[in-house]
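Hi L.,

You mentioned the student needs an example of a multi-chain input paired with its predicted structure. This one should do, with 447 residues in total across all chains.
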Amino acid sequence: MHRILGGLAAVLLAIGLWLGLGVAPRDAVQGNVQRIMYVHVPAILTGYVAIGLVLVASVAYLWTRRAAWDRVAAAGGELAVCFVGLTLATGSIWGKPTWGTWWTWDARLTSTALLFVIYLGYLLLRSVVEDPERAATYAAVLGIIGALDVPIIHFSVEWWRTLHQPATMLKPQAPSMDPVMLQALLVNVAAFLATFSYLVMRRCRLLTLRAETLARVIGSF
Amino acid sequence: MSPFLRTAWAVFWKDLLVERRAKEGANALGFFAILLLFLFYFALGPDSDRIRAALPGLFWLAFILAGVLGLGRAFALERENDCLDGLILAPADKGAIYLGKLAGTTALMLAMEVIFVTATGIFYNLDIWAAVPRLLLVALAGTIGFAAVGTLFAAMTAHLRAREVLLPVLLLPLAVPVLLAAVKLTDLALAGEGWGPAWPWWQLLLGFDVVFLVAGLLTFEFVLEA
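Structure written out for the whole complex:
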């Protein structure tokens, strides 16, 4: 199963790269810099999926108390930090030539940076609690509180101040984008989601093996 | 009174009683508030116009710094002599214990906030007294929201070696909406604006309070028993 998924992710990523760099037309205003969107947008969407996965796995863990759910939440949290971090990095690289600055305190940037900090704190909490069951419970509570805060942070920072261009894909009217560009973007979104699923599966497997080995070592004394 | 509220009241009353007899926490927080005034003076200079422009942010910066200290203390007290085990073993709803601790922290923070605002008004010779009733409302709603999340994380981090660092690191990014709404509302109150522009921010602040009070009531049990 994971082999198929991994292969699919690799193929989709390759096609996405080809479509994004080779097939999709150059942006009329921004030039080639705009192509970073094919990484930037899939990364943040995947980041949100990861945060959602942490929420679901956290609730499921508190409900069932099964360690498997905790491992899913742990994998989700790590990938949330990775993908949100990738979003910030690519956004910064795009912002320098386009806005003329690496960073600006725009609403969308600020709230994304906050997400990054919150889930970095999530990983930190996991790493400092020694007792594994306690760590799982604390992390689950933080996973729930953090996910509940995401929309509130989004709106509060949005009202505070904004400058970012509105989202082009999820708005109610037809997306205002070249169909070839949209196609390249969608393939990349699929590729990122496949990669994410593959990584979650592999990470869970690794965490399971580690827990089993630890139990065996402790049992052998 | 229902048993739930009676338990919450008992925990709240116990915390106040401890504060009144030991006086360490409240005195230290009041003193800390006055010290912050000095720091702000050194940071911004004696120009009262500059202070006035930065006032809403200064207020909430002070409240949050003192709040983090107060929260840490609320559970440091419970760690001594294994009081926390007593609370966990008590045949009571854990949500009520959460509510009691939350009320205790809120009361302590509000007392410090009143001291801070009064001292700021006097020492910088600012005419903020007409806004005091509205400031109190904002302070109450903001403090409840901050303490709703904070109580949960203070209970979590109380056992950990890195608690002094971990509590603010976890709490501050999550409390950003409270900070933004409260600063904006404080600004509007100080400017003597009508309720119209304040209304969306009130909705945001009260919404935050409700969401995290409910989340805290539901998850505190897991935190205590972990």
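You could point out the following to them. The interface with chain A takes residues 149, 152-153, 156, 159-162, 166, 169-170, 173-174, 176-177, 180-181, 184, 200-201, 204, 207-208, 211-212, 215, 219, 222-223, 226 of chain B (CB under 8 Å). Chain B has a mean pLDDT of 88.

Best wishes,
N.
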